[in-house]
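Is this the right way to post structure tokens for a design question? Let me know if I should format differently. Anyway, here goes:
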């Protein structure tokens, strides 16, 4: 006990002899602020340094960080990016423009290639189906039930073969009362076969109007309608065949001729964001939402169909919000820098900070 008291006494004397330094306390380092004491690479905003120098990635001279007024630093659900604020003068300097998220009528423009049909297999399948239907009609009044059931089976098999080839009742009705020879030798009408990619096939439906042009008939535009969409996808090309019938009174299209097809497909009224506002990071599709005070917040969005000048918005934005439509890459660079700067203040020993 005597030894413990002696050690405590000596420790107290040693502490009493230490000089007192006002304000000297063990504290966590204060977060780094964005002032002229920090330098950043303009090409790689994640490179931040307390001293002037060059970027270790590209060798460019580091530039002083401009001080910006405080803003909400929420990342909007986008990792590696942070919100920030810019003055009106600086927005004008870098050319920031805004667009509005709004509900509007959207339409998708679909362009594809096709050919004028020469399809002897389908011609034969249609002829067989017609013969099977005629035979069943003749046997319908027969007392031989087995013959009648056999005729029904033949008709079902012939109809299944047509359905596998994408031939619907609508297509069969288009041949009513006439020989389907147009599948072999186009005359007043021509069948057009169009290959549509898997991700676009959901847009195409029977009854839609299409425009057809052909290199063999320069300057002419043929207008027809979609009659059917094949139910089976081509596993090699990932496309589906769309069939359309196009009037050609002068038989201007020859079998197997290549054609270009254009369809304008309305989507109806949808929530839309200007196409220029969207940045694809590889992991996310993001936009920068702008508040009236000049505060920029990154926002991850889920997009639907791409229209001519806008994207359909499925989630992430609300009607009336404003988004950046130009200088996006500069805004994105600043956002990534602010996120890196926040990490720098918390962990200055990271490999990207010097």
């Amino acid at each position: 006990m005597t030894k413990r008291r002696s050690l405590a006494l000596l420790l107290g004397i040693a502490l009493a002899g230490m000089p007192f330094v006002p304000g000297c306390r063990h504290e966590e380092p204060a977060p780094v602020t964005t002032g002229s004491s920090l330098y950043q690479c303009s090409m790689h905003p994640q490179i931040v340094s307390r001293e002037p120098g060059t970027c270790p990635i590209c060798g460019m001279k580091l530039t002083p960080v401009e001080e910006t007024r405080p803003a909400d630093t929420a990342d909007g659900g986008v990792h590696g990016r942070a919100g920030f604020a810019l003055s009106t003068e600086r927005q004008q300097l870098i050319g920031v423009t805004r667009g509005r998220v709004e509900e509007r009528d959207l339409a998708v423009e679909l362009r594809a290639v096709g050919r004028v049909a020469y399809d002897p297999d389908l011609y034969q399948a249609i002829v067989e189906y017609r013969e099977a239907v005629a035979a069943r009609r003749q046997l319908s009044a027969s007392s031989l039930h087995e013959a009648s059931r056999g005729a029904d089976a033949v008709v079902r098999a012939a109809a299944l073969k047509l359905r596998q080839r994408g031939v619907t009742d609508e297509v069969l009705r288009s041949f009513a009362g006439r020989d389907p020879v147009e599948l072999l030798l186009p005359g007043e009408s021509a069948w057009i076969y169009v290959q549509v990619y898997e991700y676009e096939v959901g847009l195409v439906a029977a009854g839609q109007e299409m425009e057809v042009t052909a290199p063999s008939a320069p300057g002419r535009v043929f207008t027809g309608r979609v009659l059917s969409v094949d139910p089976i996808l081509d596993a090699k090309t990932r496309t589906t065949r769309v069939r359309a019938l196009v009037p050609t009174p002068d038989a201007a299209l020859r079998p197997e001729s290549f054609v270009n097809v254009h369809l304008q497909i309305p989507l109806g009224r949808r929530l839309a964001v200007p196409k220029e506002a969207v940045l694809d990071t590889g992991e996310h599709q993001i936009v920068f939402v702008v508040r009236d005070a000049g505060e920029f917040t990154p926002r991850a969005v889920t997009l639907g169909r791409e229209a001519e000048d806008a994207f359909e918005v499925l989630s992430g934005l609300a009607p009336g919000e404003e988004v950046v439509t130009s200088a996006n890459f500069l805004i994105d660079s600043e956002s990534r820098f602010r996120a890196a700067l926040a990490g720098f203040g918390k962990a200055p020993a990271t490999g990207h900070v010097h």
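Format looks fine. Someone answered above. Worth noting: Helices lie at 2-17, 88-94, 120-139, 145-164, 169-174, 328-346. The chain has six helices and 16 strands.
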